[in-house]
Model the fold of this input.
Amino acid sequence: GVYSDSNPWFGQPELFNEFSPVAGRLPGGETTWTEAYVELGLGGATRVAESDFYVYGAASGVFSMSRGQDIFSDDNRNKLHPDKGYVGLLYADPATKNTAQFSLGRQTYTLNTGFLISMISGNSNAGERGATYLGPRNTTDFSALLNGEVGSFRYAMFYIDPDELEDLESNTKFAGANIGYGFTDAFSIDASVITIPNSDSTYRTPGGEGLAREDTTTWGLHVLYRPTTPDHLWLEGEAYRQSNDGYDMEAYAYYGSVGYIRKSLSWSPSLSYRYASFSGDDPDTEEFERFDSLMSTGLGNWLQGLSFGKVYRNANLDTHRIQANVSPQQAMNITFTWHQLRADELNNLGANPALSQLGSRDIGDEYTLTLRWAINRNVYWQAIASRA
Done:
């Protein structure tokens, strides 16, 4: 990967990285650098005799490199780090199409679109690990996953211990369950509950009290309507409530999106609109209302702006997103995305310290153009340009 950042950190790198343990020599007005990685490992699956059971597993390591001044440091970094390391058992009945799958170890997991749980947050690619933009590491320190399908029902249970940077280790674990039902090939609903059984982190409040992140519970619904016909309208939304057993917490997050695709036309154009909201904490109420976005992220989905994503996470945030996409050929997509970001509350404690109190709810706009091209089975090219 080759990357260039003009006016990084909105021209204030020292301000936004004052308390960052991974910041070294910070960039000036413009910087260009390179990143690379190689993953070496072994994986496979095999059927157990003539049964409907299969065992599988993988083990690998990632060696990454960063050269030049990136957004955090100008050190040449080389890092060899464990990556995949899991074993699993799969049951698949070819007659009923029912499945069950259980796996343990260093692996990845994403819930739905990554609104709350994205595999990208399972690991970190900063500091001494390098390859910050390329992001080769997604596997957790440890995960236990159980998922499958029975008729039109699908289910998942998960326990996730993210692989955090040593200097930022919070000992945060996530556990949850998801159950869904497909009413038709186009329409499905699923419900999730996610808990934080362990964490050393706290939520900050205007009064200076630290509220334990541990024992926060998140629950809600996801609805999807997406026909299989070439030309169709699609609808999708998720809504969640958050509470904590130790204190009065009432936080909410939700989104709704609508889109239309016309595959019968040349270049298969599509257009969509999405509104998303993560509640902020109103300092004039007794409840704590800042939504904890858990492991929310994902390039092109819940990383809401390449530049804004560096300084502002999915908390105390309302966004409008318009996205247009065309496919000049079957293996190529060109996507234009516009994000408009607004704060839900001026109180922004818990975010980057430089933005703990906002002077305006208007945060900004970001415009992104992305090319994804699978040139052949062995070569994939991605190019992104974004202005915030």
Observations:
- The longest strand covers residues 30-47.
